[in-house]
Amino acid sequence: MTRSFNAPAGARVRRYFSMSDFAQLPLRPDLLGNLSSLGYEAMTPIQAASLPLILKGQDVIAQARTGSGKTAAFGLGLLQKLEVERFRVQSLVLCPTRELADQVARELRKLARAIHNIKILSLCGGQPIGPQIGSLEHGAHIIVGTPGRVVDHLRKGTLQVDDVSLLVLDEADRMLDMGFQDELDAIVAQLPVSRQTLLFSATYPEQIAAIAEHVMNAPERIEVEAGHAHQSIQQFFYPVKSDEERIDGLRLLLMKHRPDSAIVFCNTKRETETVADALRSMGFTALALHGDLEQKARDLVLVRFANKSATVLVATDVAARGLDIDDMDAVFNFHVARDLDVHVHRVGRTGRAGNTGLAFTFFSEKEKHKIEALAEKTGKPIKEANLPAGNQRNQTTYKPPMVTLQIDGGKKQKVRPGDILGALTGKDGIPGKAVGKISVMDNSAFVAVTRDHAKQALEKLSSGKMKGRSFRARRI
Q1: In this structure, are 45 and 85 located in the same domain?
Q2: Domain boundaries, position 54
Q3: CB 208 within 8 A of CB 49
Q4: What is the pTM of this model?
Q5: Are 211 and 172 in contact (CB under 8 A)?
Q6: SS3 (DSSP) at 196
Q7: Is 393 exposed, middle or buried (0-12, 13-18, 19+ CB in 10 A)?
């Protein structure tokens, strides 16, 4: 099912897109003929929902995951709009990684092969800039690139964007995860105001909404829902007799459900440290977050949890305010919240972005009246559950999917996310999909990489150079 609504108004208006045949679209004959030869038959849901709007020249926010056919959606839009006889850069497509940019460029070339004399150029980091400058001197119609390298060319004056009439932000949420906000701002500032902007994103966090408001003109937002991704939260309530039983319940439930990201809410600062210490002693990667942490320590905790290199965050409600993580797999209430509205807010941190969430609450006999009050407040009966059976104390705990590497250089040393990405994915480097969130602070930077690429990534950072100099890097 697709749904579409105007982002500024925020009111959701459901629409059903029955159009499925590309021939129903006002596309040029050479594009339609080529689509047929490529084996494109029926449109995917994201294509059927977005292409009519894109072809009308509207700004569009499309929420869809990789493999949904989004490249063809914006690709056909920009090719339909292209004036081949004007040998100027008319469309700019920004992607978070070189691999995605190369993939997009290849698909655009396939879609455009019936249009003669069209030039599509890739501008990505991790590759020599000299040949790119040479290619730009010969002109291009469409640029597909990574934010850092596009900014480099804009600063050097080797890329002219005065004639860009269409901007595409592909996998915008991932670009923000990798720290490209400043680069995006710098690029948008140089583009013509009177342009069409298309934003494609798998998720829709607050940062994406802020970008849309800043760079788009009355965008139409489209969300394609996967049939299995209906938003829901499953709640489970476990009676316990002691804090030791709560800790054991935590261990058993973590081992059973194995969430990549789980938050445990505690009512006191001391409790967060106690619970985090207990989980670490069992082998879990757990971090404590409370009001007594210094800002530097708090930043490091949030970086590691947000980039999935720590599985469990044990936090007080106050310390967790402002925590903006969309894909929390599970929430645990170590004790029932003192305020029932707080309980609802805690639980609401899971099951976002169309995912199914899990919420587990431990309660004692003294807290039972709160559970009964919660049932009355929500109008839903609350059933007591049994903790998983079996003694799993000797079972090896699971590790988070990512590892954090710290670099002793940051904004004050002119280190940018693009520099880090380029250093990791350059010659003999790791694949771009193995790189997670990148966070650049004043004097340090943090990058998440998949666990199986951590050793190679650390060697690349330690032996390579950024900004013409070497930086110390270590795993934390």
Answers
A1: yes
A2: 2-224
A3: no
A4: 0.63
A5: yes
A6: strand
A7: exposed
